[in-house]
Write a structure and sequence with these properties.
alpha/beta, Dihydrofolate Reductase, subunit A, eight-stranded mixed β-sheet, two-stranded antiparallel ribbon, 29% helix, 28% strand
Length: 188
């Protein structure tokens, strides 16, 4: 059975996106060599990337560009090469390389994907997917990078969950730029 992970950056006050969806703050600290090595290592890890429509459109609008290849060639090459799944009822097509568009029931499709053999799945961004799939107990691992910034307002990663989500801390790692990685697995 495949595992499903969610990878997110959040602010110290718990938001994955600021007002109006702003995530520019998550890109600070790129002058830290240890952080950059971590990001590049994650990009080379493989697997299948999973997105909702909003995050997919943002990623597809950046990673295939010449600017992305110039600014971060290792990550850009891998983001473009990896298989991707986007869940959307409104997209008509998903032209970014190696992308499959799924329109049917999110929960049922993810159950099917997890039951298949193959590489593990990772949600990048896509807070609405995380809250919906967390409610159903379908996310196995949560990798959360806490950023040294307070936004005061925004969207919580778990907006809309209706019951407590019990997690077990499996790893922590602090970076010189002040970011802290917290790795959790679902405990129940």
């Amino acid at each position: 059975m495949r595992r499903l992970s969610a990878f997110h950056q959040i602010s110290l006050d718990g938001y994955f996106a600021g007002p109006n969806g702003d995530i520019s703050w998550a890109h600070s600290g790129s002058d830290d060599p240890e952080w950059n090595a971590f990001v590049a290592g994650n990009a080379q890890g493989g697997g299948v990337l999973v997105f909702g429509r909003v995050t997919y459109e943002m990623m597809a609008g950046y990673w295939p560009t010449a600017q992305a290849l110039a600014n971060d060639p290792v990550v850009a090459r891998q983001m473009n090469a990896l298989p991707k799944i986007v869940f959307s009822r409104t997209l008509q097509s998903a032209p970014w390389s190696n992308t499959r568009l799924l329109r049917s029931d999110l929960t049922a499709e993810v159950r099917k994907l997890k039951a298949e053999s193959g590489q593990d799945l990772t949600i990048l961004g896509s807070g609405s997917l995380v809250s919906q799939l967390s409610q159903e107990g379908l996310i196995d691992d949560y990798l959360v990078v806490v950023n040294p910034i307070a936004l005061g307002d925004g969207r919580s990663l778990f907006d809309g969950i209706r019951r407590q989500l019990a997690l077990r801390l499996t790893q922590t790692r602090a970076f010189g730029n002040g970011k802290v990685l917290l790795s959790y697995e679902r405990s129940a």
